[in-house]
Amino acid sequence: MSENKEFQPEVSRHTGEYRKTVKSISKSDDSSFEQVIIRLVEGREEANDKETFISQYLDMVINMASHYSSKGVAVDELISEGNLSLVVTANNLSHGILDINKCNNIRKACDELVRDNIRKSLVGMIDEQYKSEGDLNYALAKANLVYEAANTLAEELCRVPNVNELSEYTHIPVEEIEEIIRFAGPALPIAEEDKI
What we know:
The chain is an all-alpha fold and about 200 residues long. Helix content is about 75%, strand content about 0%. The protein starts with a helix and ends in a 12-residue tail after the last helix.
C-alpha cells in the first residue's frame, strides 16, 4: 500500500508535464488540417502528415483519459492506450475508415471517428482490467471455498480429507482442486498422498 502512495505523485507529475508539453504543440488551422485528413484518406501522405494528425488530437486523449481514470486504471496507462489508438487511426485512414465523399464536414466527421476509436480503446482497456481483477477474485474465492471445505471435512471425518472427497463435497473437478492445492501449498489441509 505504501509503495502505491509513493508511486502516485510521480505518475501525477509525469501526467502534468505531459499535459504542458501537449499544450505547447501548435495546432493546424481547420482548413490546413482538413487538407492533412484528405491526403491521409486518399493515400497521398506528405512528410509529417501523420504527426500533424496525431498532435491535433493529443488534448482529446488527455481529456478522455482523465474522464475514464476514475474506473481503476492509471491516467498514464489510459493516455498511452489513447495515443496508440491515435496512431492506429492515422495509419488506417487510407484504408477506408473515413469516407470523405459522404462528409458534409470532414473535420467534424474525423473528430467523431477519432473520439469513437479512443473511447473504444479506453473502454476495452478498462474492461480488460476488470476482467483480470474478476478472474483473480474468482480464483481466490474458489481457493477459499476449497480451504473451508477441507477444514469442514477434516472436522466431520476426524481426519484430513483427500482430493476426491474435496471434489465431491465442493462439486469442483479434481483437476481444479489439484491446481488450487499447487497454488495454495501447505496452507490447505489435504491428505499427504494427494498433495502435488
